[in-house]
Amino acid sequence: MLSSQEQTQLMTQVSVLEALQRLIDVVAQLRSPDGCPWDRSQTLDTLTPYVIEEAYEVVDAIKSGDTQAIAEELGDLLLQVVLQAQIASE
């Protein structure tokens, strides 16, 4: 039987995985034939500058020590990673 703390940790992990799956689903929809024309027109190469920009923004946030900014910039970078992964899988 799980302790209360273990149950809370498990629920948090499930919530994170569900949120990640929603992001993956949204990106797949954006890339679908009925999706966003801009997203559909992107390639691994055209998105490279965005990945680099977001990576630098993560580094800047880390150097600033602002945990909120770090979380936000990591979220932006994650979006780029998921979009790149979707394109690569196509």
What can you tell me about this protein's structure?
There is one protein chain. It contains 4 helices and no strands. It has helices at 4-31, 37-41, 44-64, 67-89. α3 (44-64) packs antiparallel against α4. The longest helix is centred in the N-terminal third of the chain and has 28 residues, at 4-31. The mean pLDDT is 96.
Note the topology.
Layout: H1 4-31, H2 37-41, H3 44-64, H4 67-89
CATH superfamily, called what? Answer: MazG-like
Q: Taking Cα atoms only, what radius of gyration do you get, to the nearest Å?
A: 16 Å
CATH fold call:
Helix Hairpins
The biggest sheet, with number of strands, parallel, antiparallel or mixed sense and barrel status, is: none
Structural shape? flat
Low-confidence stretches: none
Please give the CATH architecture.
Orthogonal Bundle
Please write the string of helix (H) and strand (E) elements: HHHH
Strand content: under 5%
- The count of β-strands is 0
What is the helix fraction of residues, given as a range?
over 70%
Which structural class best describes the helix and strand composition? mainly alpha
Mean pLDDT: 96
Number of H- or I-type helical stretches: 4
- Beginning-to-end CA distance, first to last residue: 43 Å
Q: Give the tally of structural domains.
A: 1
| CATH C-level class | Mainly Alpha
Compact overview of the structure:
With 90 residues, the chain is mainly alpha-helical.
Tag the structure with descriptive keywords:
90 residues, mainly alpha, Helix Hairpins, 4 helices, flat
